[in-house]
Amino acid sequence: MMSNVAVAAPAKTNSKATVLFASLIGTTIEFFDFYIYATAAVLVFPQLFFPSSDASSAILQSLATFAIAFFARPVGSALFGHFGDRIGRKATLVAALLTMGVSTVAIGLLPTYAQIGVVAPLLLALCRFGQGLGLGGEWGGAVLLATENAPPGKRAWYGMFPQLGAPIGFLMAGGSFLLLGEFLSEADFFAWGWRVPFLASTVLVLVGLFVRLKIHETPVFQATLDKHEQVKVPMITVFKDHGKMLFLGTCIALATFVLFYLVTVFALTWGTTSLGYSREHFLILQLIAILFFAAFIPVSALLADRHGRKITLSIISLAIAVFGLFMAPLLNSGTDTGVLAFLCIGLALMGLTYGPIGTILSELFPTNVRYTGASLTFNLAGIFGASLAPYIAMWLAKTYSLQAVGYYLAAAALITLLAVLVTHETKNQQLDN
């Protein structure tokens, strides 16, 4: 006689390789898209979209559009975080990747100021907003995909894989502009060559989508779905019940953003204007230094898993503050040795602070609002720490001196240090809450 008892289907699980590759490939694509804009905002857009008799004014206008994405990112965090905490991580990650990809490809198709006038920078700003919207939803989901699938004691190690997408994306972005500069004349580069990296993003997005569509929901969030523990409006719950963690998480990520965009976007601007470096020469120095960024991400993740998040980030934040006090002589030396030392030290510190930051921010929030909470903290820090950092740094350097930029970085690092010190240790905290 046949039994009528239903047998539950085994839960679908993701293999380690699939999880880590899916979290890495998505952020690599996202950051490639983001960095080609950052590079073009310094090298291309001031001439093609913001013509002005004053070169410094054109650069500042271009950097202002660079900032737009950081204001769009919290909007993306709220939008994609809502569906990520209500429906699931997988579908939301796919939608975020598409939003970022379409916006980036559209930039590569835009007419310039010479062709359509003032509409050109407006369209550029709109596409930049789309980039920020997508990245606002991408990063948090990628980190959760990794950390919510991590075995005990290895959350920071798993959580650093999405972070590795940043240096890889930067290498691809910087390398693409370097190759274009090598093989194209200046006229061809400004006529059409600068568009190639934006259009090439199409292929990368398709690869990312293929991988993302193969993953299953994370077991931690699947348990939340099975128990019907989702909240109606995750963003409201985050602000109402987890406002303290939102504030502290934003401060914890502050120095990370200020450091990175000073060592990349501001340094590229300063190097190719005040120091007289060619575009290709300075990009080569940055690409060498990015290897230090990539190398130190796993180092800090291992330290965070072994010794805890607080002690690891506290020491790193203090080191960033010290670097800020002494960075000006290195960068302003105008020599390859000094500039490369500035870039390598700065990006090594960036790797150290960036490796565990995603894991720490995700651990501050319970599962049913983790996507929204982690994304909002990271992207609010982007507004305060990165959106205007190149602009503020350029203003400080021109108005006062390069040393003032170092003080700006040191102040951000001290804010992060204080926030880390008053936040509880999350190393042994369970995520199924």
Automatic annotation (TrEMBL):
Its main location: membrane. Keywords: Cell inner membrane, Cell membrane, Membrane, Transmembrane, Transmembrane helix, Transport. It comes from the Bacteria. The chain crosses the membrane at residues 20-46, 58-81, 93-116, 122-145, 157-180, 192-211, 245-270, 282-304, 311-331, 337-361, 373-393, 405-423. One of its GO terms (cellular component) is plasma membrane. It is a multi-pass membrane protein. This is MFS transporter.
